DNA sequence: CGGGCCGTTGACACAAATCAATGTCCGTGG
DNA sequence: CCACGGACATTGATTTGTGTCAACGGCCCG
């Protein structure tokens, strides 16, 4: 099993550290986790429905979706994961998958064995707490997504998604116009928003009228404030602006 | 602070125990958690948006919803919680609420101080694990709800909800016709399903045609198989049929 | 050169929202 | 005891947002 330590898991540690307080030693235990590199191609399931896994995945590069579908095979992407995320961290406590995980674009993953994660979580309650917290942030994003699909029209939905992804990619939104890559097709955008590809296309045309475009997998935002207004977006659920003194550690 | 031990938290312990393995001693630590009783009336928020809480709530009696809304004030209920649930167990690691919690019917809650939960979780990794796992089951229900709203029509959505609630109430679905109480109005049903109250009413009329009725807050199901078919329901995401030998304990 | 994937556009169909009115039940106060 | 108001449920007429179907264009890559 390859060990590609600091170079690889540092972003994950940074993310945990942005919301949780970990000691030097605990941080080192995270960086020391053993990993195995895996490449996945676009549209490749790397976790399938019902599969029981013995490792969690960390995204180094690319874009990953959590896929569900109804009985007619219509797909719904219930979560997107970008570099630094662990899409199935939850599998540590719930190893049988109830959703599939699929790469939307060519992606590089690190597989971290459950045994290792369990080891550090059991030995260091603060790490267990940080991992649990990270899962709960994902869960808050899910809840927000229900609001988005249940109570916003197509234009707002797409705008909201673009706002969310801009924030998660840490695009500095102050100096407009900004642009960032979002490596997905309009088809996949439809699977995220619960719309049809045709309607996504029409909706993007409407968005262009307020200065936000999505072409060749690049999002370009001319007027951030306006996009936020249209998308009815409030970033607080992302928990991405926790100030250092607000970080939490529940065990001493 | 009242201690109403065995009599009260036993159902919560039962639930944890249905998916996780806890030793006698660990089980006792759960039962020994200090609690304070609280009564809430229908439509009363007991956790409001943005509030930072120092305790989690356990539902003894009644029905509780997790409420979000868009900027136009249209409400979306993102989760329902029934007796035995802890609607904001996640607040142990994420004490600032991103959704409100409101009673749908008169409810009895037990407030469990975070300090106590943190104490047992820190001292017993297996308890931390069981609590984390319980949160993740809630999260899977959220994901399934996204599929429901994003990719099913009104009839399926309502049918799916009724199936889910029947299972969670442990209605024994074999001996039809079955009936159970679901203490919510058609209005609240609309807030759960992302529909309008008018359309919920029409949809219920359609459901009646296949032998499922909802009147006076009582659900009556004549043909379970048919309801499952219409609702496109697969209970596996509820993790409610974990056999004893499948229960998990990741720390020794 | 040809075939696929992706994006685009138009005509039309349909599910659900909206608007508005009416009905029923129930608790409360005159 | 009845009148009243309010919450909840029901129904019809109409509008609208989104889905469906179908065709076409651009582009990449084999």
Quick structural summary:
With 252 residues, chain A is an alpha+beta fold.
Note down, in words, how this protein is organized.
The structure is a homodimer of 252-residue chains. The first copy, chain A, has a 4-stranded antiparallel beta sheet with strand order 2-6-4-5. By secondary structure, the first copy, chain A, is of the alpha+beta class. In chain A, strand 9 and strand 10 (218-221) form a beta hairpin. In chain A, helix 3 packs across helix 4 and helix 5 (154-168) packs across helix 7 (197-208). Chain A is globular. Chain A contains 8 helices and 10 strands. The model of chain A is unreliable at 1-6 (pLDDT under 50). Chains A and B meet through strand 4, strand 5, helix 3 and helix 4 of A and strand 4, strand 5, helix 3 and helix 4 of B.
What is this structure's SSE topology?
The structure is a homodimer of 252-residue chains.
Chain A: H1 5-17, H2 24-31, E1 36-40, E2 45-47, E3 55-61, E4 64-69, E5 75-81, E6 100-103, E7 107-113, H3 114-123, H4 125-151, H5 154-168, E8 178-181, H6 186-193, H7 197-208, E9 212-215, E10 218-221, H8 224-231
Helix pairs in contact in A: 3-4, 5-7, 5-8, 6-7
The structure holds a DNA duplex (30 and 30 nucleotides).
